[in-house]
């Protein structure tokens, strides 16, 4: 497939200034894509943007990845109904460092240039900015942009001058990268369309050159109808301290069939032929959830490593009765300990359940066992007994577990 064909097939094109997307196929050039530092981790929404970047990289384009050390101090109004809380310079610096580490990890195996827009904004004074940048933007044009008009119009929450200036800062980013790297294309999320046009306009007015923008559709969580954003409830993070490897794996494993097909195109590098083959297999045996298993393995491998993806699969199989607990390795056990209560051997089943906080008393545990509500390593237990082997897995009811180590 050509670059334009692959972008279209994977669902990476929303809006563009290009007259024809096939213009991307004619010559390999340089693009840039910005990532904000409003949090100490990127999410799977940001990961979709990274996957789009890698399509360009596979087709021979040069990439500039921009960490928003300066713009994150201002706060991006795009796609927001109210102003974001301001963050300190120290917090943003720490967030930028973590963003850069995650970007390097995801883009491993690809050459790219990493920049931070704080490097050029920190030495620019306000008069220089107003004269060299601000004078090229008309107020009537800016206030008509959807995200600004919505905020300052009737019923809107209003917008501070700080937020209003954000679009000029982003426009200058494009100009700076055009001058230094001959960057002629910006990639961005669809909520950045207006901000991206600022760079196109600024370069046209100051350099007499035409550059372009391609925006990506915001990837929607089909289970909630909301985008995969940092500020959304239930955000899925790339940092395992915010979303554990097991929970990350489970998220992909539990998406529905329609979402699995879309996400295979967006979040993996599998070929069109391979994905179509997976779809056929899934339709022939939907109970096997082949698409979801493939998706979960590939995305978890990309973000965390193949070894940890394998551990997440094994832990999942053990919890849901598809594998024996004695198949767990030391690493698997360590992962499982983060997900469920755990206790130590040399006690009875009832004591273990009580120690882990699953029951309120030994009597409750005994009653549950007599009623057939407790199993040990997959086998029902009807009376309290000593725990003699480790690791062991106690299941109480439908979804309460205790790991004995």
In terms of quaternary structure, the protein is single chain
C-alpha geometry: elongated
Indicate the structural class: alpha/beta
Largest sheet: 5 strands, parallel
Helix content: 40-55%
CATH topology of the largest domain: Rossmann fold
Task: Please describe what this structure looks like.
The protein is α/β, with parallel strands linked by helices. It folds into three domains: 3-218, Rossmann fold; 245-337, Tyrosyl-Transfer RNA Synthetase (Orthogonal Bundle); 342-404, RNA-binding S4 domain (Structural Genomics Hypothetical 15.5 Kd Protein In mrcA-pckA Intergenic Region, Chain A). Helices cover 47% and strands 12% of the residues. The protein is built from 19 helices and twelve strands. The strands form three sheets. A five-stranded parallel β-sheet has the order 3-2-1-4-5, sandwiched between helices. Strand 1, helix 2 and strand 2 form a beta-alpha-beta unit. The longest helix is centred in the N-terminal third of the chain and has 18 residues, at 89-106. The chain is elongated, with a radius of gyration of 26 Å. The model has no long low-confidence stretch (mean pLDDT 90).
Write a concise keyword list for the protein shown above.
single chain, 405 residues, alpha/beta, Tyrosyl-Transfer RNA Synthetase, Structural Genomics Hypothetical 15.5 Kd Protein In mrcA-pckA Intergenic Region, Chain A, 3 domains, five-stranded parallel sheet, five-stranded mixed sheet
């Amino acid at each position: 497939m050509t670059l334009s064909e692959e972008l279209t097939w994977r669902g990476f094109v929303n809006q563009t200034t290009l007259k024809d997307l096939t213009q991307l196929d004619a010559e390999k050039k340089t693009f840039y894509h910005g990532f904000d530092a409003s949090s100490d981790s990127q999410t799977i929404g940001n990961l979709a943007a990274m996957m789009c970047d890698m399509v360009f990289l596979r087709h021979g384009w040069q990439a500039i990845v921009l960490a928003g050390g300066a713009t994150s101090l201002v706060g991006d109004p795009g796609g927001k109904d109210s102003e974001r809380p301001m963050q300190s310079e120290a917090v943003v610096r720490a967030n930028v460092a973590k963003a850069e580490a995650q970007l390097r990890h995801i883009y491993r195996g690809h050459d790219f240039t990493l920049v931070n827009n704080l490097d050029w904004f920190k030495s620019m004074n306000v008069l220089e900015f107003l004269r060299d940048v601000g004078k090229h933007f008309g107020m009537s044009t800016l206030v008509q942009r959807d995200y600004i008009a919505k905020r300052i119009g009737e019923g809107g929450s209003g917008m501070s001058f700080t937020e209003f200036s954000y679009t000029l800062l982003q426009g200058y980013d494009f100009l700076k990268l055009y001058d230094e790297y001959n960057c002629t294309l910006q990639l961005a999320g669809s909520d950045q369309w207006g901000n991206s046009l600022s760079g196109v306009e600024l370069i046209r007015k100051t350099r007499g050159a035409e550059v372009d923008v391609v925006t990506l559709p915001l990837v929607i969580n089909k289970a909630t109808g909301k985008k995969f954003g940092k500020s959304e409830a239930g955000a899925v993070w790339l940092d395992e301290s915010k979303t554990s490897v097991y929970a990350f794996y489970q998220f992909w494993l539990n998406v529905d069939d329609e979402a699995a097909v879309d996400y295979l195109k967006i979040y993996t590098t599998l070929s069109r032929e391979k994905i179509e083959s997976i779809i056929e297999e899934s339709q022939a045996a939907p109970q096997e959830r082949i698409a979801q298993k493939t998706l979960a393995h590939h995305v978890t491998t990309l973000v965390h490593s193949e070894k940890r993806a394998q551990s997440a699969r094994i832990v999942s199989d053990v919890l849901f009765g598809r594998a024996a607990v004695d198949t767990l390795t030391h690493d698997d056990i360590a992962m499982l300990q983060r997900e469920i209560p755990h206790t130590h051997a040399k006690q009875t089943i009832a004591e273990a359940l009580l120690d882990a906080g699953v029951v309120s008393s030994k009597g409750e545990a005994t009653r549950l066992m007599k009623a057939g509500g407790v199993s040990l390593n997959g086998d029902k237990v009807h009376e309290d007994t000593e725990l003699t082997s480790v690791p062991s897995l106690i299941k109480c009811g439908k979804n309460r577990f205790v790991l004995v180590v």
